[in-house]
Design goal:
Largest sheet: 6 strands, antiparallel
Helix content: 25-40%
Structural class: alpha+beta
Strand order of the largest sheet: 5-6-10-9-8-7
Number of helices: 3
Number of strands: 10
């Protein structure tokens, strides 16, 4: 029995064909894995970047924040901004360079956490903390599902105290 003319292409042709088949299989596997991870992953956190205050030092401040906040993993923020960071689901959200809290009460208590003074505003579904007396001003919103809400300020305050100007409570110490 003789081979048909042109049916034997040699080892190079076999290797090229095998490479094309393998390449398609790898590409298909990547598409399936990426699609599956997109379907099961945590959606991006939608955050409005702060406006109306000096945000110049914020990218450096935010860049020094931990990727993991105690037991909470960092989340993708949308739109991407060097002024914000988020952890967990639902997200604990930090915004840098925020203006004074809208309903700021000058007689309110300043809570010192690891050297950073925080003004607390109860919200419908959690607490918003603002480092009212620091430069730049930091806002941390903690959902009530992560109660007690102030617990998340400990790690953040330790990191922020080194970076903020006038971080503590006024007339402290």
């Amino acid at each position: 029995m003789s081979a048909r003319p042109g049916s034997h292409r040699g080892p190079a042709a076999c290797i090229a064909r095998a490479t094309r088949v393998a390449g398609r299989a790898v590409a298909l596997t990547l598409v399936v894995l990426l699609t599956a991870s997109a379907c099961t992953g945590t959606p991006d956190v939608r955050i409005t970047p702060p406006t109306g205050a000096d945000t110049t030092p914020c990218p450096a401040v935010v860049d020094e924040l931990p990727v993991r906040l105690d037991t909470l993993d960092q989340r993708v923020v949308n739109p991407g901004s060097s002024l914000v960071r988020a952890w967990g689901d639902p997200a604990v959200v930090l915004r840098c360079g925020v203006p004074d809290p809208q309903d700021y009460d000058p007689t309110a208590t300043c809570f010192d956490v690891n050297g950073v003074g925080w003004y607390a505003e109860p919200q419908e579904r959690g607490v918003r903390f603002t480092s009212r007396w620091s430069t730049p001003r930091i806002e941390v919103t903690v959902p009530s599902t992560h109660a007690p809400e102030a617990q998340w300020l400990s790690t953040l305050s330790t990191e922020l105290e080194r970076q903020l100007r006038h971080p503590g409570c006024p007339n402290a110490g």
